[in-house]
């Protein structure tokens, strides 16, 4: 359950020492949020041109390039070990497909005694693992030292300082509260939740349904139908989350339902965009090449398909999307079939 959001009050900067790993749009948006609150921010990016762009001009030249980043407040580097060493809190914002390779240079001990916050909206595709499970297995990080930050949020709107709600989830409520403080500012409110596993699963699943909404849009289905489709996707997601992680939770909270809705409807949604390309007739491979960013729903569909071999849940939408993406099933006939499934 999410706790009530604390009203924002102007405050002095917090003294948490934070490292952000990742140079894309969402990482840049997170840097913007944190810059309003923190004194010590270290930012790892892979590309030298981003290091130069921030240090010389105060902008990420590749993503959200209109967003000002003060190099006096944010120390940017492509030396991962140095950035991690400077921090007590490490926020991971790389696409899930690149996470393993990104963290390879780190010795396992480098993350000992650090608080890890995942802002990754997907799974490790090579291992079919959730991010927290991967970090626990590979780096021996206890769940009590991990949190996730999520919510209905697109980086583009945060860059424009449009009012946004986020959720900090952790089994450690002190950690969740600290993360919520970091992410609460004039235009962002962050609540807390103890349901990190349910939220992490919902974040993976919502990308599948958003991808499907894009496919239907590309096929020419209208808003009337797509609204009904999303309602059925919500029901399917709720049933699966409860089956995998039984327990008390309100799946109508914004971290579950709100995140699904914004990903399914927003013009900024890369998963909807990816699906739309497939609906318009592009092959999965060509659509991937056309995308300049990762559509996490592609990997999520396989993950949920594999996971469901154990649970045997009735998830016809997710299984249909998997069949289109991985088995080459006909897009039009499969999406028509699933549309009629609920009639």
Characterise this structure.
The longest helix has 24 residues, at 196-219. This protein has an eight-stranded mixed β-sheet, sandwiched between helices. It is α/β, with parallel strands linked by helices and 343 residues long. The two termini are 33 Å apart. It has 15 helices and ten strands. The chain has two domains: 14-194, Rossmann fold, CATH 3.40.50; 198-341, Orthogonal Bundle (N-(1-d-carboxylethyl)-l-norvaline Dehydrogenase, domain 2), CATH 1.10.1040.10.
What count of domains describes the coordinates? 2
Largest sheet: 8 strands, mixed
* Average pLDDT for all residues: 92
Distance between the termini: 33 Å
Nearest-angstrom radius of gyration?
20 Å
Unreliable segments (pLDDT under 50, ≥5 consecutive)?
none
Beta-strand segment tally: 10
In DSSP terms, counting alpha (H) and pi (I) runs of 4 or more, how many helices? 15
CATH architecture title of the largest domain: 3-Layer(aba) Sandwich
Task: Tell me the CATH superfamily of the largest domain.
Answer: NAD(P)-binding Rossmann-like Domain
Strand order, largest beta sheet: 3-2-1-4-5-8-9-10
Key words describing this protein structure:
single chain; 343 residues; alpha/beta; Rossmann fold; N-(1-d-carboxylethyl)-l-norvaline Dehydrogenase, domain 2; 2 domains; 10 strands; 50% helix; globular
């Amino acid at each position: 359950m999410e706790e009530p959001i604390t009203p924002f009050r102007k405050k002095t900067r917090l003294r948490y020492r934070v490292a952000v790993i990742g140079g894309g749009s969402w990482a840049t948006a997170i840097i913007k949020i944190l810059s309003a609150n923190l004194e010590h921010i270290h930012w790892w990016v892979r590309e030298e041109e981003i290091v130069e762009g921030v240090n010389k001009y105060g902008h990420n030249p590749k993503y959200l390039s209109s967003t000002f980043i003060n190099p006096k407040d944010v120390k940017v580097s492509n030396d991962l070990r140095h950035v991690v060493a400077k921090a007590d809190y490490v926020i991971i914002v790389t696409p899930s497909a690149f996470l393993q390779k990104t963290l390879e240079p780190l010795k396992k001990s480098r993350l000992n005694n650090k608080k890890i916050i995942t802002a990754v909206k997907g799974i490790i595709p090579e291992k079919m693992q959730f991010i927290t499970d991967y970090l626990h297995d590979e780096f021996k990080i206890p769940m009590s030292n991990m949190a996730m930050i999520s919510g209905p949020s697109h980086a583009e709107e945060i860059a424009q300082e449009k009012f946004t709600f986020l959720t900090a989830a952790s089994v450690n409520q002190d950690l969740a509260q600290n993360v919520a403080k970091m992410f609460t500012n004039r235009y962002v409110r962050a609540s807390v939740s103890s349901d990190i596993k349910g939220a992490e699963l919902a974040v993976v699943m919502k990308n599948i349904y958003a991808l499907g909404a894009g496919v239907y849009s590309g096929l020419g289905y209208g808003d009337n139908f797509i609204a009904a489709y999303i309602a059925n996707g919500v029901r399917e997601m709720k049933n699966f989350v409860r089956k995998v992680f039984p327990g008390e939770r309100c799946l109508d909270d914004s971290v579950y339902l709100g995140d699904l809705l914004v990903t399914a409807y927003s013009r900024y949604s890369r998963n909807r965009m990816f699906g739309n390309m497939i609906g318009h007739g592009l092959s999965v491979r060509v659509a991937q090449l056309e995308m300049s960013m990762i559509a996490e729903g592609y990997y999520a569909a396989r993950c949920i398909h594999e996971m469901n071999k154990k649970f045997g849940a009735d998830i016809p939408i997710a299984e249909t999307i998997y069949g289109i993406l991985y088995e080459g099933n006909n897009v039009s006939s499969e999406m028509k079939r699933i549309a009629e499934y609920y009639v």
